[in-house]
Design brief:
Blueprint: H1 2-32, H2 36-49, E1 63-64, E2 81-82, H3 101-107, H4 110-192
Antiparallel strand pairs: 1-2
Helix pairs in contact: 1-2, 1-4, 2-4
């Protein structure tokens, strides 16, 4: 049973690592090539696999206060306009928002459209990998729980048998001691006293 549980655990870790590794490196690679649209998707998949930390690192948005006379963008709130803060390496890149008019223009280019469709397909395939892994994780977890329960039941059953055996041995030992004491008492009385015994 222990070997079975160990084997399940090894398989669980290996497969879990593969799905997580794919998500993490896809996130990293998409950041490197300024594909933050894919980063958002792959990070979400990684978060599905990983258990949330007990102490999350606090991350806060950066807001710029609106000045008098300026128009208020739709994405602003009482805190002001939320700023998209990116690393310096993006300073020469053009920002295109998904589902915007500029994004629609990009889709008209055959090569770019094919690239984006391939990216979507890769993401869909990865989501299937993650879904399968999560299902396997749940299955293995349930198997480990059942194995643990069975192990506890076996231990409890063995402890009960041992207790019964100990009880039987104790009774036999008590009977043996009583018999020995009775025989000793008989000979003592027979030898050292004048009491006439009937046997």
């Amino acid at each position: 049973m222990f070997l079975t549980m160990t084997g399940c655990g090894t398989y669980y870790l290996e497969k879990n690592s593969e799905a997580l590794s794919q998500a993490v490196y896809a996130s990293k690679d998409s950041i490197e090539v300024a594909r933050l649209d894919l980063t958002d998707m792959y990070v979400s998949q990684a978060a599905r696999i990983i258990v949330p930390p007990k102490q999350r690192i606090p991350i806060s948005a950066v807001y710029k206060k609106d000045t008098v006379g300026t128009s208020t963008p739709a994405s602003s709130n009482s805190k002001g306009q939320r700023m998209l803060v990116v690393p310096e390496k993006y300073k020469n890149d053009k920002v295109v928002v998904v589902n915007s008019q500029e994004y629609a223009e990009l889709l008209k280019a055959v090569e770019i459209n094919a690239q984006l469709e391939k990216d979507k397909l890769n993401l869909k395939e990865h989501i299937i990998v993650v879904d399968t892994q999560l299902a396997n994780n749940e299955k293995i977890t349930n198997e480990l729980i059942l194995s643990n329960q069975k192990l506890k039941e076996d231990v409890s059953e063995k402890e009960t048998k041992i207790a019964k055996q100990d009880g039987t041995i104790f009774k036999l030992w008590t009977a043996l001691v009583s018999l020995v004491l009775s025989i000793a008492a008989y000979f003592y009385i027979k030898i050292y006293t004048r009491i006439s015994l009937p046997f």
